[in-house]
Write a structure and sequence with these properties.
This protein is of the alpha+beta class and 153 residues long. It folds into two domains: 42 residues, no CATH class; 97 residues, Winged helix-like DNA-binding domain superfamily/Winged helix DNA-binding domain (Arc Repressor Mutant, subunit A, Orthogonal Bundle). 42% of the residues lie in helices and 14% in strands. It has five helices and six strands, in the order ααββββαααββ. Strand 5 and strand 6 form a beta hairpin. Helix 3 crosses helix 5. The longest helix has 21 residues.
Length: 153
């Protein structure tokens, strides 16, 4: 809003990023209508934005809502399992060493978390995401290297 009503002022105001340009004096009803129009455009913009999600092997993670489903059915994951699943799905078909996983998931000095703890988390996660946890196809162990999320399962 400004008293500068020259054409060059209006053009410059819009060109430097203004959504609208109003000169004084103005009518209050016109001002409110312009605000409402801007809010409508803003709501449509937010509705059109796709919610970030990860999908692979029948598993879907809606990141903003922290919802996980397997074949459309909700999965109840503990916080550590959720973080581990996100890490795997963000790095598909990449072998992650236990050290890499531990450093990404636990931001402490890893004094209380070791590879045995990681093994327990992976076992629990497999019971929830694998069709047959005894023969894992999604979270694959790569001998002497680590684990990977297999997208061809």
């Amino acid at each position: 809003m400004t008293a500068a009503d020259e054409e060059t002022d209006i053009i410059m105001g819009l060109d430097i990023g203004g959504d609208d340009y109003m000169t004084k004096p103005f009518k209050l009803a016109v001002f409110l209508s312009r605000i409402n129009a801007l809010l409508r455009r803003s709501e449509n913009f937010h509705q059109e934005q796709a919610e970030p999600e990860l999908q692979s092997n029948g598993i879907r993670i809606r990141l903003l809502k922290q919802e996980v489903t397997k074949n459309g059915l909700p999965l109840d994951l503990m916080a550590g399992e959720y973080k581990l699943l996100c890490l795997f799905m963000e790095n598909p078909n990449i072998v992650l060493s236990p050290e890499q996983i531990l450093s990404k998931l636990w931001d402490c000095e890893e004094k209380y978390v070791d590879s045995n703890t990681l093994t327990v988390y992976i076992r629990r996660l497999r019971t929830k995401v694998e069709d047959n946890p005894a023969d894992p196809q999604k979270i694959v162990t790569v001998r002497r290297m680590g684990y990977k999320w297999n997208t061809t399962a």
